[in-house]
Each structure stands twice: as C-alpha cells, then as structure tokens.
Amino acid sequence: MLVHISKSVLVKALQQVYRAVPSHSPNSLLSGLYIHADSEGIVFRGSNTSLTLQYKVDIQDGSVHVVRSGSIVCHAKYLYELVRKMNDDDVILEAKSQSMLHISAGGTFVRLSGMSQAEEFPSIVPPVSVALYPTVQVPSRLLISVIQQVVVAVSTSESRPILTGVSLVIQGERLTMIATDGIVRMATRTVAIKNEAGVSASVIVPGTNLLEISRLLGEDGDEPVTIQFYPHQIYFSTNRLCMQSALIEGKYPPTRDLVPSGYISEVTVNLSILRQTVDRVSVLAEQRLITLQASEPRLVLSADTSEIGDMCDGLAWESRSGEDFRITVNGKYLISTLRSMESDCIRIRFADKRRPIILLPTDENASWLFLLNPVLTN
Amino acid sequence: MLVHISKSVLVKALQQVYRAVPSHSPNSLLSGLYIHADSEGIVFRGSNTSLTLQYKVDIQDGSVHVVRSGSIVCHAKYLYELVRKMNDDDVILEAKSQSMLHISAGGTFVRLSGMSQAEEFPSIVPPVSVALYPTVQVPSRLLISVIQQVVVAVSTSESRPILTGVSLVIQGERLTMIATDGIVRMATRTVAIKNEAGVSASVIVPGTNLLEISRLLGEDGDEPVTIQFYPHQIYFSTNRLCMQSALIEGKYPPTRDLVPSGYISEVTVNLSILRQTVDRVSVLAEQRLITLQASEPRLVLSADTSEIGDMCDGLAWESRSGEDFRITVNGKYLISTLRSMESDCIRIRFADKRRPIILLPTDENASWLFLLNPVLTN
Where are the domains of chain B? Predict the structure, then answer.
C-alpha cells in the first residue's frame, strides 16, 4: 500500500471510525484500525464487534492518491494521535507488508507496527447481494432526531439486556422507535417514511450503537440514509459512511398499556424555559427528586437537599386545562429527555399522582411522547 | 445582610474565590464561602487554610447595592452552581441571621443554610498595621510570567516538602524565583523590580498556591501587585483581589552548583516549532523518553514504544556552535517547560551526556534558565 492523502481528510476519517474502537478488548486486533486502499479510494474501519464503522475516502474527491493498493491494521490510538499532530498537510502512508506502516509528513517519519492478521478484522461488506434484504431510505436529520429523542429512555442496566436496546419497527409508511427502562421511562416516536417496496421489519438495536450512529450522521451533512435489515445485523449507510450494528435477539415487551388512557390535567409550557428551570432546580435536588406543581398562576418546580437548603422556581404556562396537580419525578430523567426534544412548547399531561406524566409536543401531527413515572414520596 | 448584586459580577466573584475551596476537608466550614457586606461593598472569601483568596466588589462599581450589612458562610458548591444558573441579572442576597441565606432572582427563590460560625472563617486582614511589614510592588504580567515559568519545576512528591515550594528572594532591585524537584529539573528567573524601601526577603511559597495566584492575576487585568511579607505568610494583593499563602518553613537547598559551568555545544531553535515537535514525538515516547540529537543539518528528536513503533522528527536550527551531541530526556518535563516559556527562540546548551542540558532565552539580558537532567540509557 502506498497512498498520499490530505491530513485534514485523514484526521476526519480516523476520528469517525475511532469511535467504534473499544478502550479495552480481549481481542487485541480490535484496538486497531483497518485501512484498505485500492483504485476506488481508501476505506477506514473500526469495530468493537457489536458496532462496526467504516468511512470511505473516494479517489474522485481529489484529496487522496493511491499509488499502490493494499491493507493494514494499525493501533488506533497511536495512529490517530500521531496523524492529528502532523504539521504538513501532505501525508504519505506506505506499507510494504502488513507488519509495518510508514507514515511521513513534513520532517516527521514514523514506523508503526501492523497487526499482521488484517484479513481477520471484522468485515462490513455483506456476504451476499444486498438486493436480497429489505431496504428503506430515511432522511438523515429525521433519523438523527428520532434516535436521539428515543434513546434517552433505554435501560443502562444489564439485568434485562433487551431493554438496553431500542425497538425499531417498520410497517407500511411508518417507522417507529420505542425505548423503555421497564420501570420509570418510556419514549416513542413514529415518523412517515417512503416504503415503496413494502418492507416490514421489527428489530432491537443496542441503544449505545444507535447513539453513536446518530452522532456520526450528524457530522456527515444531510443526505439520505439507507437502512438494510440482515439476519442478526442492521446496516445504516450514506455515501461515505457504512455502520453495522449487531441486533439484540428476543421479543421486545409490549409498551402500549404503559400510557394512561386519559388525563385530568394538561399544561403547555415553553420547552427552553422549562429546561433551564429544571436544570437550576436540579442543583438542590437530593436523590434527583423534583416536584412539579400546577396551580395558579404558574408551574412551580421545587427541590430540597437536607442540611443544605431548598428552593422553588417556576414558569408561566402558555395554556392550561383541568385540575391542579402535584407530582414528584426524577430530575435527571426529566432533563435528559427535555434536552433531546425539538419543539417550541411541550404539553405535560397528568392522570393521577401514582401514574406517569406524559410529555408530548403541541403539534398534534408530531407523533412522539415521553412517559415518566413518578417517585412516590411521603 | 441584604444586598442587590448583578449576576455576572456575583458569578465572577464566586468563581475567583471558589478556587481555594478544598474538595474534601475535615473542617466543614472550609467547604463554605464567606460573604461580608458593609458600606464599602461586598467581600467574598474562600480558603483551604494554606491558601486564602478574597475578592472585593466595591460599592462604587455600581454593580452592587448594600441595603443592610452582615456576613454569612454558605456551602460553596451549591452557592456557585445556583447563582451560575440564575436567569435574571438582578440577584438579591438576604440573610436575617447567619443560619440562612435567601437568594432570589427572577422567579427563583432559594434558601441556603448558613454555617453558623462565620467569624471562625479564616481571616485575611492582617492583625497589625501593614506598614510594619516589608512591601514591594511588581507589575502583574511580569509576576505571572515569572511564576508560571518557574513553578513547572517544583516537586510533586511530599517526600521532601520543601521542594514542593518555590524559593522567592528579593534582594536590592532584583526578584528571583527558583524551583527544583531536587533530581531532574530546576528553573530559575530573576527580574528587575523597584525596591525603594530596600526590602530584603527570602521565603518558600507552596508551588500550587503560586500557580493559583498567577491564574487569578491573569484574569484580573494588568495592574501592580503588592507583595507583603508577614511572619509565616505572604500576601499578594491588587485592587480587588487579596491572596494569602502560608509559607513552607525551612532552608531552601543551594542550587547554584547544579548548573554546569561550561558547555561544549549550543543550538538555537524556534520555540514554537520545538514545542510542536516534542508534542508529536511524545506520542511514541515510552516512559516519556525522547532523544535529542544535534548533527547536520538539523536537531533530530526521536522516540519509540516497544511493539508499537518508533519515529524521528526534527527541526532546522537558527544557529549552532560546538560539537554534535546526543542526549535522552524526559519528554513530559521538556514539554511542560517549553509551554511556560515566552520567547521566539531558545538556546539549548549541552555540556556532557551525563550532565543536564540548559534551556535559556536568546536575549542575553533575560535572566532565566531551565535545567533538565538526562535519563541515562544504554
């Protein structure tokens, strides 16, 4: 392998795939990054086996020149740190064998050991024709927004592994994601997509993988994302990026019954002001407990920490219907979902002090909701 | 106590003194910040007993209005976090007694417990007239530069506590600071100061305290800093800031003999390029070892990490005299001193492969130097 590549393009490529590299792995090959150059360009790949990220720099971009094809796996951390610090934009990567990569730029010359089993590095190219598997396309920004809004509710505990995943369902012209920790939180959003091939799919994708995928898509501009469903795997790809995640096997628990069928009170408040108020009240929220109280003339938030102090804060509502209410929730969960929402105002629905509150958008057509169970206090 | 104060001014004041608050202390009073308001303005104070920081907001600044005098000590972390998140610039602090502070701003109302022994909080006002003790004035920027350049060489080990301090000597019209870890590094700088009163002083100030002091001075604009020498204490003050540090008792070891009396080789290189080169080579520096080699036509830096790889890098020199040399040093110590230096170019002097290299400015009048002992390798 012998290639000339622009430093800035190389840094970006390494940054992208570096995110899949595990900090510790029993398989030392996974602490490496796979580089493959051929007449089409250069492909960079990182993997923790559950998530594999691949970034392609096309020969036609003009920022890369491949003199000799080849592939190598080098230690990710060293490779990335070294390239980032180069002081010349013209970087030359040369590997005479899979056991050594030479990097030169300006007055700098580096010899990095290769991990000699490059062909054993996790592959991302599907073994059979893609046409065999169901495929849909979703606009990048929409997909990012759905993932980030739903993924806040996944469980972080391994006691029920299935709940560390997000349920992704495609049926007709609708894509739905659902996540819940099974106890306190549930988030769901449904969006309209084009589905001319009539694909039906229902899979569970690890939440941490989806979050990484949404972050990488966010850095890659707004282009259509192709989603493909394979046995035990899901692929998300754009022009440059290809991201493959393992699936969680099993049956996602039913969540429909979690949402209270009615409500006795609803307030509409400005999302950004609510976010700031919750953030402020969280400072004194012992065990993260924040009490919401709707009574004239505003929504009051209060918290206390024993021996330190207490506080109350509040915001005027945009509109309100129904009875006064008072409920105590986990402020950390509340703030994380408020940060993931995109809306000027949101509605908060209250059914009963033992039943969850529901957060949902003011736009009746936007079909997302977030459910937060109360913390029962004295 | 009842005061109105602008949020931005209050946040800045708390930020400044917060830096002295210990994260853990057996004395719970020290986890607090002392606030005192009277007809002159408001004083804020934080202390870890070794370092006490005080910041004054003067009534004449127009950003504070004192309705009722008084003082209180409140938990620093909560106070700072809460004030920082307030969404109204007009903050009211009210304490009816020393046991409770009320904070209100916009729709937010907070009650913070006071630590009821405000009068036991470490004091900063000298008990007797300042005229009794030696006093000099040094321009703020000059003092910051001297501290930051020298403090990189203090020891971080408590095995010889005296070496965790910086020796500060005033004699005639000269202020000298010296720091050494006693083994590998020594830094010293002498600057001219005005000393009409003929003050003589020689004290040892904890390096971490001096570093905090230099950081606070850096945020406070360029004004003269008054240095006062008290028994067991040193004071640094500007209009708004008063910073008091305990001294380390004992006799600072002699350092003059550490500097080799002659040298056989000297190279002059661009400081900024050297910094970048050392930073890059550090990536592959196992046990931080970097080898410097002066031979035609450039200064070559090299490093390696077993099983990962090796690299060499280099920079052209500005000028050079004497023999070729090769020496191995600790790259972490080298980079930290290069970052603290202010100069376009520096000179590197080599005497012998077992004796320290000396880094010094090209300006013959600038009297600072940094000494770095080699690491002996095979």
Answer: 2-120, 130-246, 260-372
